[in-house]
Amino acid sequence: MRQTMWYGEKTWAWNPIAQRCTQISPGCYNCWHLGMADRLMKNVKMSDELRHAYGTGKPILVQRRLTEPLQRPEPTLIAVQFMGDIFHDRITSAMRFPVWEIMEKAAHHTFLILTKRAGSMAEWCRLHQYHPSQNIWMGASIEDQQTADLRIAEVISTPAAKRWLSIEPLIGPIDLGVHGLLNIDWVVVGCESGPERRPCPNKWIEDIVKQCKAARVAVWVKQIQGNPQPIRDAGAFPMALRIREPGDYYDD
Ligand code: SF4
């Protein structure tokens, strides 16, 4: 696992499956994973099998990566398979089950599941009569009103101890609606990164923060539009956006 800068200093990335994802909605247009997969598929230091998985081949569960969370004694926030999408239709249940087994065994960690295929996540959980584990938070990535309208309801219908939304990249204003935040525990919001990033006025982020506050949902503003680069240091945000509440902020 490697340390990341997603949600604070203690977030680690765990990518037990080597895969190449495919674009599904406008939020995917500048996908960093696909750029990384392009580089990995050309990396001659990797096995043919792995390179193939990052290219057009079948995804594979990488056994040596699978047990990584068990080797880490200190409780950690772990981003699961952000290098792709664990609910992509090429990922089989035979690959997912061992991942869930490890997450359940490593109960001292908190695992963040995130997908743009929230309908598949809800369906998979229903099909396998999934019993939520306290340490596994299920979430969807949304980017505009259309994806919010589609995916939030699917997350809410997913059995989970905690549910969360990653609104990143935010590429349009979003009205989460009266019931949009019902049973959502945590919202992470931020602008797009990269040379082709799309505009994200602070007003759109402020509106999300206001909606979360009104619904008593924890909110983490990850990054805002800046010039020439997005601003990641919360200390440099306008006061109204200087808000970084962890997902358990409202726990009793
Ligand atoms: S779903 Fe995620 S990983 Fe897959 S292409 Fe879209 S942004 Fe990239």
Estimated share of beta-strand residues: 15-25%
Element order: H for helix, E for strand: EEEHHEHEHEHEHEEHE
What share of residues is helical? 25-40%
- What is the number of beta strands? 10
- The rough form would be described as globular
Radius of gyration: 18 Å
What are the segments in which pLDDT stays under 50 over at least 5 consecutive residues?
none
Query: What is the overall pLDDT average?
Result: 95
Counted by DSSP, the helix tally is 7
Bound molecules: iron/sulfur cluster
Strand order of the largest sheet: 1-2-5-6-7-8-9-10
Give the biggest sheet.
8 strands, mixed
Summarize the structure.
Helix content is 28%, strand content 17%. With 252 residues, it is of the alpha/beta class.
Model description:
This protein has two domains: 8-139, no CATH class; 168-252, no CATH class. 28% of the residues lie in helices and 17% in strands. The strands form two sheets. The protein has an eight-stranded mixed sheet with strand order 1-2-5-6-7-8-9-10, with helices on one face. The chain has a two-stranded antiparallel ribbon with strand order 3-4. It contains seven helices and ten strands. The chain is globular and about 50 Å long. With 252 residues, the protein is an alpha/beta fold. α1 packs antiparallel against α2 and α5 packs parallel to α6. The structure holds iron/sulfur cluster (SF4). Iron/sulfur cluster binds next to α1.
Secondary-structure map:
Blueprint lengths: L1 E2 L7 E4 L2 E2 L13 H10 L6 H7 L5 E2 L1 H4 L10 E4 L12 H13 L4 E6 L2 H10 L8 E7 L2 H12 L5 E6 L18 E5 L11 H14 L2 E6 L29
Parallel strand pairs: 2-5, 5-6, 6-7, 7-8, 8-9, 9-10
Antiparallel strand pairs: 1-2, 3-4
Helix pairs in contact: 1-2, 5-6
